[in-house]
Amino acid sequence: MSLPPEKASELKQLIHQQLSKMDVHGRIREILAETIREELAPDQQQLSTEDLIKALRRRGIIDDVMKELNFVTDNVDQEIPHSPKQPVCFTDKQSTLLKKTNIDPTRRYLYLQVLGGKAFLEHLQEPEPLPGQICSTFTLCLHFRNQRFRSKPVPCACEPDFHDGFLLEVHRENLGDGTRMADSTTMLSISDPIHMVLIKTDIFGETTLVASYFLEWRSVLGSENGVTNLTVELMGVGTESKVSVGILNIKLEMYPSLSQTLSQEVVNTQLALERQKTAEKERLFLVYAKQWWREYLQIRPSHNSRLVKIFAQDENGINRPVCSYVKPLRAGRLLDTPRQAARFVNVLGYERAPVIGGGGKQEQWCTLLAFLCRNKGDCEDHANLLCSLLLGYGLEAFVCVGTKAKGVPHAWVMTCGTDGTITFWESLTGHRYIHKSNNPDEPPVAEQPKPLYPYRTIGCVFNHQMFLGNCQPSDSVETCVFDLNDESKWKPMSEEAIKSVCAPGATTSLPPFPPLCASTIDASVTSNEIEMQLRLLVSEHRKDLGLTTVWEDQLSYLLSPALASYEFERTTSISAGNEEFQDAIRRAVPDGHTFKGFPIHFVYRNARRAFATCLRSPFCEEIICCRGDQVRLAVRVRVFTYPESACAVWIMFACECVS
């Protein structure tokens, strides 16, 4: 096992500190003296090392030391075939434990260290936080070749104190024969960048995307001793993508050390060739897209007003083909069904891209890592993720671009069944709608079913392989026929042209898709914490009104099945368990008493914010401020966790009082 020298010395120091803390040396001296006194014959002058170890083991000293020096490995929920070796991550210099220890000495690693930041001028006047004070923080998230890492949060400052190391595995099975370690030439052909996303979290837990950067790491292959230092300038996102937000000092080092480094000229030539090849592919696709658009307008001039979205800007202001934002994504064992995937996407927060001043909506389609790390995004981000997950489950899924009521642009997901059934999936709510086309040529007397979905018009549909523009006389969803093979209704783009710029590895400018991460939230602990906070808030609120508060613990417990049933229904569209809940409540509430309950759902864990929202409901306020004889209050919180630490929080307030 190869460790960086500073980590090896740090590990030795930690072990030494622990041994001193346990006074192991003193205990060994005592046992040594006792063993010599009891076990050595008068004519025997020395004690062997083996005898001493036996004595130490007999008295439990070695077992005690090993218990104190245990190494903890994280449980990462990934499918075994995709990730035979989990990445190593050193993140906390103060920690007495290494987070992960499964380093394979036969594989090649890139050790990336973040050695502080500077010139984060927006935080120039930021006061230094006092010990224990809650403050805004920066967190750096990384993705490289199906491995994800997250730094420890550091207080926001002009010179943030980033000091983290990440061990990135470069080697993989299909590089050569799988038995040899990847050499410099082999690694030079690996064009995957290191995607770095900087997130700011404020004191209320709200996240903001600060920067998104693709680090070209292969310069280390041409540096002396396989070590290089870089200064990375991070640019803002969206409308601020041309403005510098700060600088990170980064050190890259290969482990084990390279036996033979490449010349910097060779590395630069390879990178220049890749950029040239990518630029040519993108140029040819742009020429083709322009020709396709001219042909589309020739069908009907009114097509010019339809929402046919061929390119979209990412968080860095770079135009990418929309098909590159979607790719079949497998969730491993983190999500079991397509509907559970829809629920997961639904509980990720919704936030429109920020815009300075007026002028309508700011366009920003986020890369998947930026969306997941921020834990919220616009409707297009949700639709792209849901479509990718449904494709991963083997469904024929497409992102639809069109409008809702009042002409508001919107994106949602559509699946096409083998029997021709068209299903719309609303990624912001998790709702599903079966589409039945209304025939505009039917006589007016024929009763047309009113659509339940909120969509009004549709301009195009796309996934990772196909792009089709709606060329039917009307772009109304209600009358639209979704026979995607009929070129008189849907004008397709060449699948070969899409593949040339959107297939995995087709160009070096495409950001690779990261895997999903398991939740780090303990559902039971978080549920209890929020419930205790809400009890305190209710008691304080009633005290301000001159009311006393009596909590009924048994009634609170009886509310749990209802909350579980609500979440089950959101995930499966099936209602279950309501009869048992109603029967239990009838038994618990005495004759002559009235029971009132108010369930509500949130996708955040801020108890104070949730309580303020609840009080805006007259019905909930009536329960919380209930007056009368023998008033008993109850509250139950149930947190349901999903990947990426997203969660659905169900809360029910209830009371019983004399009728």
Automatic annotation (TrEMBL):
Domain CEP76/DRC7 peptidase-like: 363-493
Keywords carried by this UniProt record: Cytoplasm, Cytoskeleton
Domain named CEP76 N-terminal: residues: 10-69
Function: Centrosomal protein involved in regulation of centriole duplication. Required to limit centriole duplication to once per cell cycle by preventing centriole reduplication.
Residue ranges annotated for the CEP76 C2 domain, each copy included: 102-259
Protein name: Centrosomal protein of 76 kDa
Family membership: Belongs to the CEP76 family.
Domain Centrosomal protein of 76 kDa C-terminal: 520-657
Intracellular or extracellular location(s): Cytoplasm, Cytoskeleton, Microtubule organizing center, Centrosome, Centriole
